[in-house]
Amino acid sequence: MTKFMDVHHGMTGLTGDQLREAHEADLAIQDQEGVVFEHTWADPESGTVYCLSEAPDADAVQRIHERAGHRADEVHCVTLAL
Amino acid sequence: MTKFMDVHHGMTGLTGDQLREAHEADLAIQDQEGVVFEHTWADPESGTVYCLSEAPDADAVQRIHERAGHRADEVHCVTLAL
């Protein structure tokens, strides 16, 4: 398992409820691809959302996000962490 | 205190030692601005580094990064977190 940081842009004005609903949609199906979403952070002002996960590969992360209805704009394999 | 995610681009080929050295340079002076750097993740392939912190404001985060020699390209106030 490798750690991934994925980024969603264009989410200006996102509310806490919307973030929770989107995150729960990921969690509900993450087992299908062996992904574990660990955290998510959002800046509603710039419309940026970051999701930290562990997954077999970047495509698995993207497939979960796509099926949950919110494709990521970037998925980065963060091989270094402190 | 508010949570911030800052992003550094153009760090292609970054090594674990370089990330640790940069992170420790931040930690050494973070008290000067009341910043607490909590985590950092890096994707050396795309050259992207993410730093999660708690701080009084975005400028405080940037001042620490600047003094430590690595200005952030983006500093986002992540008011939502799960």
The main pleated sheet of chain A reads as: 4 strands, antiparallel
CATH topology group of chain A: Alpha-Beta Plaits
Determine the strand fraction of chain A and express it as a percent band: 35-45%
The figure for the number of domains of chain A is 1
Can you name the CATH architecture of chain A? 2-Layer Sandwich
What does the overall shape of chain A look like?
globular
Q: Which whole number gives the mean pLDDT of chain A?
A: 97
Spell out the helices and strands of chain A N to C.
Answer: EHEEHEE
Q: Are there runs of chain A of 5+ residues with pLDDT below 50, and where?
A: none
How far apart the termini of chain A lie comes to 17 Å
CATH class of chain A: Alpha Beta
The total beta strand count of chain A reads 5
CA radius of gyration of chain A: 12 Å
Please bin the fraction of helical residues of chain A. Answer: 25-40%
InterPro entries (chains A, B): SCO4226, SCO4226-like
Protein name (chains A, B): SCO4226 family nickel-binding protein
Helix-strand layout with pairing:
2 copies of one chain form a homodimer.
Chain A: E1 2-8, H1 16-29, E2 36-43, E3 48-55, H2 58-67, E4 74-77, E5 80-81
